[in-house]
Task: structure prediction
Amino acid sequence: MSRCKRIATGIGFAATLLAASAWADVKIAFIDPLSGGGAATGILAQKTHQFYIDAINAAGGLNGEKLELLSFDNKVNPQESLVQLKRALDEGARYVVQGNGSGVALALTDAIQKHNERNPGKEVLYLNYAAVDPVLTNEKCNFWHFRFDSDADMKMAAMVDVIARDPKIQRVYLINQDYSFGKAVAAAAARMLKEKRPDIKIVGDELHPLQKVNDFSPYVAKIKASGADTVITGNWSNDLVLLVKAGRDAGLKVNWETYYGDSPGAVTAIGEAGVDTLKHVSEWHRNASSELDTSIAAFSKRYSGKENEFVYWRIKTMWDMFVAAAKKAQSNEPAKVARALEGLKMNTGVGEVEMRADNHQILQPLFVSTLVRGTKFDSEGTGLGWKTDAKVDAKATALPTTCKMERPK
Amino acid sequence: MLELATVSLLNGIVYGLLLFMLSSGLTLIFSMMGVLNFAHASFFMLGAYFSYQLGRWIGFWPALVIAPVLCALVGAAIERYGLRRVHASGHVAEILFTFGLAYVIEELVTMAWGRNAVSNDVPTAIDFALFHVFGSTFPAYKGLMMAISVAMFGALYLGLKRTRIGLVIQAALTHPKMVSALGHDVPAMFVLVFAIGSGLAGLAGVIGGFMLLTQPTLAHSIGPIVFVVVVVGGLGSLSGAFIASLLIGLLQTFAVAIDYSLLDVMRSAGMVVTRASPMYELLAVKVATVAPVVPYLLLVLMLIVRPRGLLGTRDV
Result:
């Protein structure tokens, strides 16, 4: 067995050498939706990755090697993603970047782990910038997956902390999409509210079909009838915008506690309906620090227009950490970069971040913010912008993990 | 309870009338031309975008008139230069043509206005509360929508049944050669019908755009429900579409308000159901959770029990 392994490693090593001499590039596969319903977020993320990768190349590359971003359209479909992963591997990609959809992420992390077990020396590293199902860094964690966004439970903890401090909040309504993520949000909200504010009554726990509702008025009528003062929702895209708009139509006066109030296009579509009531949890917003990072101005110059407004701060963090890890490892080999990423700390301009070694979950500052009029930097040219209600430091976002990481020898 | 029931009733009627606005043009085109227009929802979307753009340039009220007219012109051009040629190859070709057209329009809209939703807010002229019910406001634009929808039904019904041109159009569907021999320009009539159908969709889009999201996937998100209305009402029946719209609107709205599952019903009937029972997961689903798919259930049932729909005269 060990001899087999040694030969395999030898062949793998030789192949790597050959590959390295043939193409001096480090290929990075971006597997996300580039067509269909998820395209708006997918394409913006693609541009953001491309921007920071170009910046790395302009600064001399990764340990002298150029990075190349290859894009693959997965239509947010797990099966399609596996097909695209195969293509990416055939084209020589050693790093995979994905974010939209935890269903896709679970399929990818599983497939990549198996690939790495079978192909020693040709390991692939998975950089997840947005799929937030907690299981990815708990039960289903593995050495080759790193998450650069705070998971759904961490965001909920930050949200509930802020709710707990507000004595005016007495009755909370949960409304979520009927699939794994929506259910996880509802369960986390119920659990954490009970822990931190047992006096708060949960007056409704609703699940509705994913992206199938055109008219949210009936749901708003129910929320109204329940006497809720706050609504917690993990809804995104149409399901969030239509819900908040229906609330405004019916004159519903509640706080909207959301995960995705800042997703591309949401502020434009919600507009006045969300002023002073729409809140969200994120690692960054345009008014998180007193000045915008210089790279954001450069990004806006290269990709102009409302639908290219910069939102993915965590993508910047991810590439900064990636470069630092490769430098520390003095290698662009995924296995070595992965080890260097473990426990890596840095300052991003809005605070300290750290990549946990025990489950590969990033710890980053989280901001709970409200949509208001008259902020220094507005969103999507609407005149409305996000104002920080509370900032949770990176360390304080850490939650216990059930991950039992198996590291390759 | 009374509060929720009253508000639900109102919401149901509003949604029902929105559905009728959406489907009236489709019904018209189908009943008069026999064309099942898969691109119908795309005209609705075009109406929303046109009114958004015109509203910025010249204000809401002119846009309310001009946007549907633009949609009608686009519809007329498509009938004259596209559909008419395809017509010779039969119904399958027509359906495929309109199916492809929906994608083309979606791409064009994406190119013109971008992938994200545009901020198609309710114009200030109709942005006020019409009245209050149990502390909930009822926005004026929804009132306008109800009025337009009912007026649409009235005008179409009278236009088709009581006017000369309506009778000629109806005759042209079944006996085109005879109508033509009597000196009527049948192709021009088809252009007119398609234009009116598209214009109605556009008008619905102007108002519906405020309630829904004006984005390139708009047509895709409302397309299926429109077909449910038309099939349940009876293909080509205007009154049927009206009744089906209200029925679906009310059914869906009240279903959201029902927080009970089959499990609760069985338990209250004295049956013992545990997690180990077969299909426990399915039985435990609350009616409210599946409310938005209730119309599709109705569609399937209708096709099995009564394929011609509520007031239809021929089978699907």
